Amino acid sequence: MRISIKLLGKSDTALLIKSVLSSIEREFPVPTTESTAALQSSALTFQELLFRLQSFWADRGCVLQQPYDVEVGAGTMAPETFLRVLGPKPYRVGYAQPSRRPADGRYGENPNRLFKHTQFQLILKPPPVNVQELYLQSLEAIGIDLSRHDLKFEEDNWEWPAGGAWGVGWQVMLDGLEITQFTYFQQCGGMDLDPICAELTYGLERIAAFLQDVDSIYEIVWARDPETGAPVTYGEVRLAEELQFSVYNFEEADVAKLWEHFNLFEAEAKELLGKADGLFASETASAGEKQRFPLLATYELALKCSNLFNVLDARGAISVTERVGVIGRIRALAVGVARAYAAQQAA
Amino acid sequence: MSDFLLEIGLEEVPARMIAGAEAELGRRVKELLTRERLLAAEAKVTTYSTPRRLAVLVEGVLAAQADAEEQLTGPSWKVAFKDGAATAAAEAFAKKAGVPVSALEKVTTAKGEYAGATVKRQGVSATQLLAGELPKEVLGLYWAKNMYWRAGKPERFVRPVRWVVAMLDAAVVPLEIAGIAAGNASRGHRVLHGGAPVSLASARSYQEALRTAKVIVDVAERRHSIRKALDKATRTVVGARWREDEPLVETVVHLTEWPSVILGDFDREYLTLPEEVLVTVMRDHQKYFAVEDAHSKLAPHFLAVLNTEADADGEAIIRHGNQKVLVARFKDARFFWDFDQKTPLTERVESLKQVTFQKQLGSYHWKTEQNLGVTRALAAAVKNAGLAFDETALLKAVELAKTDLTTELVKEFTELQGIVGGLYARAQHLGERVALAIYEQYTPASTEDNIPVSVEGQLLGLADRIQTIVAMFGIGNAPTGSKDPFALRRAANAIVKILAESELPLTLDSVLDGSGADGANKEQVAAFLRERLHFYLKDMRSFPYDVVNAVLAAGANDVRDAIARAEALTAARKSADFEAISAAFKRIKNILRQAGEKGFAVGEAQGGKLTPEAQQLADAAAALAPKVAALREKRAYGEALAEIATLRPVVDAFFDKVMVLDPDPQVRGAHLSLIDGVLRSFSGIADFSEIVTA
Hints:
The structure holds two protein chains of two kinds.
Chain A: H1 5-16, H2 19-22, H3 36-42, H4 46-58, E1 63-64, H5 79-82, E2 91-100, E3 116-125, H6 131-141, E4 151-155, E5 158-160, E6 165-174, E7 177-188, E8 191-203, H7 204-212, E9 221-224, E10 231-233, H8 234-252, H9 255-281, H10 287-291, H11 295-314, H12 320-346
Parallel strand pairs in A: 1-2
Antiparallel strand pairs in A: 2-3, 3-8, 4-6, 5-6, 6-7, 7-8, 9-10
Chain B: E1 2-10, H1 15-35, E2 39-50, E3 53-61, E4 68-76, H2 77-80, E5 81-82, E6 85-86, H3 88-97, E7 105-109, E8 112-121, H4 126-139, E9 161-168, E10 171-172, E11 176-177, E12 180-181, E13 185-187, E14 197-199, H5 206-212, H6 219-234, E15 241-242, H7 246-253, E16 260-265, H8 275-285, E17 288-292, E18 298-306, H9 312-341, E19 356-358, E20 362-363, H10 364-384, H11 391-400, H12 408-412, H13 419-427, H14 432-440, H15 455-474, H16 488-501, H17 508-514, H18 519-540, H19 545-553, H20 559-572, H21 576-598, H22 612-633, H23 637-645, H24 648-657, H25 665-682
Antiparallel strand pairs in B: 1-3, 1-9, 2-3, 4-8, 5-6, 7-8, 9-10, 11-12, 13-14, 15-17, 16-18, 17-18, 19-20
């Protein structure tokens, strides 16, 4: 059983989300000998992989959302997961989520590691009884013939202490490669969930490299010209971003200013949370007043803090003594929003 | 007589939990049937499990409980019948017993005459009883970690229950577990069989029906089949053997329903990576078995246990995938290794300030400073006793011991901490003794593990662990009950084991002194170490508990001495003379305790008048005491105990003839003085009164 403790020492909230996913872009197929060309031409492109997953789950009643437009360390942190799992309302949603782990950046030089990787995140609340079968069908839908592969569900539980969240589940192993994290959420924001939900997180780069049988993430075919079949690679699309953000995160980010940003975002979030506390405790406030309270905006401020912390950490600007305290500050915001959100839903 | 089958269908249960749950389910079903008088005398209970199911088959279930007759006693006969007519009391009793008043009979007991009724209890059918009772038993199974899955959270279980089979012979037992009604349909292998239900004709057909659906439900059969498949796959490489790894076999047994094995290869160039790294990647990260050549050297192959059976093309695809994953991990490891060499261990000491040891205590830099202090104290004690070792190398090793925590390789493979440090120290030419001590610092990792071979490694291991224990106790993190989050018991066990199995001239007290502990903290840790020594002697060395108590009552500081005494005592206690001596010492202790309670003074043996038997004992003891003391000094405990056993005739005669607590205070005082002296003179090896005699 692996939980995210290992990453705790590394870089806070964003990084903590999934120990397993943090390494999704690390472990990865390597040079090949036979049949690579044949595989590459027939295997799905990176974007086709996403299309297939999206349409598979849309056909099964999921809302397709767009990636959340604030920096997050994992799909779990987007409000479509972190907040929607709270309360009794059923919900099914899928979205691709670019997920930032500043400390994992390698200037685009490491074939297996990325500053920003893509998760396809799925929340099924409540989980259907055949959720595992549906998941297996989704693998068939992206071209994996299960009769010619070895599939195992191996225990892997998950926790995100800063979000007061945990669940039990598996890492799904395909021919020895971890391709998905499958979690039954049990708690979020320190609150018991009822109904619980199933969270499926597909590591897209890893799956694409597996399907295309390539050595490096940057060799993944992102798209193909429909006329000529000429490939556009992952490297062409994203390499510059990996390089420049590594430079920023490790070299250029202005530590003093990052702290200023952090403090500003935190101060505003705290002020809003203070107001929320009063409002949701009030017996005279109307339901309408409660429902218009901008908790979603408050949550964005908390996410900003989390990402800033990760950049500061990558920059080597967080000392041992500071670390625990800063994580605690982020936890106070995240858990505070979750609690207020639950109260708002009940209002 | 019927066969009963229960199968709980689950989403994949964690491998580590399956064996325990399977056994518990079998036990619970058997106990239920026994309790309810439904188990035939010759019944056979068989359990099965796979990652997706727990099952139990009972051959020999009675169709129903036997009918029983029960005698009920009601009101006294006089109250029940007045003048031959039934009273209201009789009617109420008859109603309660469910018989007509006319059926009441007179029962005569020792207390008098009562109205009685004989009631027939019709036995409940197995179907009815199982339907009512079994769900509670299933939901009562212990799991290390549970979850909820249904709305309203009606039950907790390890993973969602997805189907239930409950059958008595060919008939379904109508029970419901976690909202799932039992039926006669099981499920087969996810991929090889697919989603079609596997209908069972009868309970007894379970194992064979599932085999047809590509599931081997019997754990022993899967284990056997995996071992055979590992052998077979390995035989394709001349001279090769797979590296035996029983825990890994158990894991893959519980990860598969229809196992097969493939042999994969990797490029020989990766064999230049340390074997420790290669094996960790294969075993811990990928659950692959390592393969070795005829010289027990790692060979460039691995064995993966699959949960499927593929055709040749499929096998090629699966092999290719597994090889790629493994090689990518090896490449990562090599990358980390090369990257880490850019910053030698000696330049990493400062960065330990960035690694937290314990937030209330400090960083690993702080920890290293502390360890250096403890090590210097222990080194001085060892030097004084004349044991040779390389002190410079030791201090260097302590200084660098934790620096591997800052390396990428250890961040990736945390289980290799210490080992990586040792390998790096060697690669960086810091000296073989330094490297070895760092490498061995965490051994023994378990009670079965060996202790470090080098004196430097032993001292580093002792200093590191005692420092941790004392510091953790100091901030209130001592283990309590089953909670030991900082693994302090394991650390203390390792201290005891190192002292027991090394030649270090150190005792528990001298180790504790070296830690600089004082006051209440020191007393607490001292007691904790003694408790671990008790555990070591009893559970690791298997000495009888009374021998352990006896030996430790006479001294629990010098670990190797305690072992020697325990060995001698274990051998000696079997003799009849020694048993008698033990009994006598127990008696002496009791008498002295009584005397103390009554306020009797211990007098003077010499001045007092002694009876002949008492005098004989006094003389024999006086003659023997210096001999025993000399043997004890030489640690010739076996001989010393044999000498003590020779006291038996005079001790027996003394207790036969002498009334110890004589009414005359002077005589009594002399006797007490005598036996007190005997006890003191001969209890230095063990407190014999602790020995349990027949």
